[in-house]
Write a structure and sequence with these properties.
Helix content is 73%, strand content 0%. With 67 residues, it is mainly alpha-helical. The protein has one domain.
Length: 67
């Protein structure tokens, strides 16, 4: 459905895209932590959930061949 790229991204462009996406992962983790703390969830559960979500999202990001 989506046409292929005419050219491959440069190393700098790929690095910048991954940096932006990593910032997004950090943003998701911060929002998730704030929501959980706002709901008076135990601290260790907040840490566990935020850590797991961050690791899973980072693994998906860094294994992507598109970025």
């Amino acid at each position: 459905m989506v046409p292929g790229r005419e050219r491959r991204r440069t190393g700098i462009e790929r690095g910048f895209m991954r940096l932006i996406a990593t910032g997004g992962i950090i943003g998701v983790a911060v929002i998730l932590g704030a929501v959980l703390v706002g709901q008076d969830v135990a601290g260790w559960i907040v840490g566990l959930v935020v850590g797991l979500v961050s690791v899973i999202l980072a693994a998906l990001l860094w294994s992507s061949r598109q970025l």
